[in-house]
Amino acid sequence: MKKDAWQRLAGIVFGTALAFAGCPALSAQGPYHVQDKWKLGGDGGWDYLAVDPQSGLLYITRGNHVIVVNTTSGKLVADITGLKGTHGVAFDTDGKTGYISDGSSNTVAVFDRASSKITQTIPAGTNPDGILFEPTTRTVWAFNGRSKNATVIDAATKQVIATVPLPGKPEFPVADGKGSVFVNIEDKNEIAHLDAKSHTLLADWPIGCESPSGHAIDIANNRLFAVCDGKKMAVVDAGTGKVVASPAIGEGPDAAAFDPESHNAFSSNGEGTLTVIHQDSPDAYSVLQDLPTQRSARTMALDPKTGKIYLVAAEFGPRPAATPENPRPRPPVVPGSFVVIVVGK
């Protein structure tokens, strides 16, 4: 998540996005609707969430721990503790191992998916944020927001095998399953194309939208989806870097997803909407729906097996008074208000 994400989120929650809070008519304009809302509670904020493709469990990073939720019952089934400031979760294709980017400790935590226990930690760069498992090389890539590089870890030995310099601050990465890794460069308004085998930067492409954060990929059609400030999604040809479409999304996004079954791309927006964009062809896109969710629901995960989307949100209390030490204080999360929102057809 971006360095100033919570400040921007607070502005969205208490600012112009109020106009979206009472628009139930929007939900009737498309096939998706809110199916359920699971109240999990707990204190503090959150960052990315991910669905384990084998077990279907939902992993949610929550500061110094990661909670694990059963997506059938909506109940908390495990809590991975002993961390400092978590951001993302990635899954090895072995079905057994997972990886957590622990930004505040500058490490990647390795955990056992059966026991939800951390088995070791691996040094990374400064503030590892986005993380992925690259299947063709069986490597883990942790993207370090402050040192502006990527730490590459061999999944077999759990050793760092490369550090790849990047042209700016990385955000969310995706892989095409063929040896290419792509990551948004938030402060340069670019996407970086990396070769997973040689650990090199192949290209950095300007994509014409501000502060790209959330990122998704359509592997079959070789298309990238980057969600940006200014209510824009950039659809990019992953072979050439050409922007082929720029459909409109909601305000304050931080995650994207693509469902190859429905050919729909998604943007979760902090204003309290989920934008659904249909792929009419690889180069043509139309807004299918702006579904009201809940203000602050700006991160999400798609379950590729069910097509369901999981978003997280909470209510916020009054913003504290500014002080010289903290001129931009964050409004506190109301205790017990943290929820998972389940969206489906």
Q: Which properties best describe this structure?
A:
single chain, 345 residues, mainly beta, 2 domains, 4-stranded antiparallel β-sheet, 2 helices, 28 strands, 4% helix
Describe the structure.
The protein has 345 residues and is mainly beta. The protein has 2 domains: 180 residues; 125 residues, YVTN repeat-like/Quinoprotein amine dehydrogenase (Methylamine Dehydrogenase, Chain H, 7 Propeller), CATH 2.130.10.10. Helix content is 4%, strand content 48%. The radius of gyration is 19 Å and the shape is globular.
What is the gist of this entry?
The chain is mostly beta strands. 4% of the residues lie in helices and 48% in strands.
- What is the N-to-C succession of helices and strands? HHEEEEEEEEEEEEEEEEEEEEEEEEEEEE
Question: Spatial order of the strands in the main sheet?
Answer: 1-28-27-26
* DSSP strand content: over 45%
Let me know the largest β-sheet. Answer: 4 strands, antiparallel
Q: Which ranges are low-confidence, i.e. pLDDT below 50, for 5 or more consecutive residues?
A: 12-28
The helix fraction, in percent, is under 10%
Backbone structural class: mainly beta
Residue-averaged pLDDT: 93
Overall geometric form? globular
How many domains would you count in the coordinates? 2
Radius of gyration: 19 Å
